Amino acid sequence: QVQLVESEGGSVQAGGSLRLSCARSGSTYAGYSMGWFRQAPGKERECVAAIQSDGTTDYIESVKGRFTIYKDGAKSTLYLQMDNMKVEDTAMYYCAADIVSIRAGSFGLSIPYWGRGTQVTVSS
Length: 124
Prior knowledge:
Elements: E1 3-6, E2 10-13, E3 18-25, E4 33-39, E5 46-51, E6 57-59, E7 67-71, E8 77-82, E9 91-98, E10 113-114, E11 118-123
Parallel strand pairs: 2-11
Antiparallel strand pairs: 1-3, 3-8, 4-5, 4-9, 5-6, 7-8, 9-10, 9-11
């Protein structure tokens, strides 16, 4: 059973940076597609960044050039580097994994593996 554990989020002022991590365990399968989702109050959960097993990445338009998704060399830890953050980035952030491709902009309805989420708050 795959387990995903996110690092603690945090609070940052607009324009600041924050890095999230997600440790994956429970499986040695190297072909997972992984993604970072976020859900703000009253909004749907949405994938903001995804990375495939070959390292290909994609992002939603609103975070392009500001967020970077990447994995460590052993591919067991996923990261999301968030720079030049905006108030609208405030949300609960979730790490997810699937054996089929996760796409930026998707809602993750069929994704089987999720972390518990971590709160990110950006203040003006």
